[in-house]
Amino acid sequence: PFSRYLELALYAPGLGYYTAGARKFGGDGDFVTAPEISPMFARCFALQAVQVFDEVGGDILELGPGSGLFAADLYGELKSLGKAPDRYRLLEVSPDLRERQRALIAERFPADLARFEWIDALPDKIRGLVVGNEVLDVVPFDIVHRSRSAVMERGVIVTEAGFAWDDALLPAGELKRRAEAVIPPGDYAYTTEISLAAEALVRTISSSLEAGLAIFIDYGFNEREFYHPQRSGGTLRCHYRHRFHGDPFFMPGLQDITAHVDFSALARAAEQGGSEVFGYTTQAYFL
Question: Which residue in 84, 80, 104, 90 sits closest to 26, CA to CA?
């Protein structure tokens, strides 16, 4: 399945894009995220964090901290406001990125390094602020493809020329049920992505959140836009050296592979986990 190929291309130990040592963020990498542009992103977040701490206390849990710059800027702003959390947890799967994050934090806040905790899995109980900035788009997703009237699962095979697409009939299960529900009616070719794993992640965080607020920032659409009849080619995008293209078989392990997220599905997952969805908005309006 493509989701398994994607998991290996991004996260295979020592070989995947996020687990190998190449630089990914900033001008010398493949793409730029908002925290890399300006510390104002984290400073605005700090105002929201203070509101959360005043209401329920707790810690910060950041998913996929990247270069660590957002964590450093956010903690620095909270410290200047006299609201630094006792614990800042960072869920990071890449050993290389962990070391870069730790080095940055140690340089910026040598006396506070003990407040930062790197973890391998989600805690059973969460209280405070959860932040996921451009994380859900790189949770391994499946690709489904309608050819005439049949809905297929798009998989990956190895040929003499390299990796190639291969379609197989969808077995009965949640992926097939979801594909039949969201693909617009018709008999024309239609390809799209479904991320049951991202929904599971949001559902798990929601069910673990005793009190607090979780904020996810990503590229995406609501369900009606995501599965629009005219978006028949899907949203898969690959990023390499500040250019994007649509070939996930180009230099696997050396390029980022993403898809937009379905905000409607993630909202349902949060509610299934027992949380209230406040809604979603543009990043500019939030800031």
Answer: 104
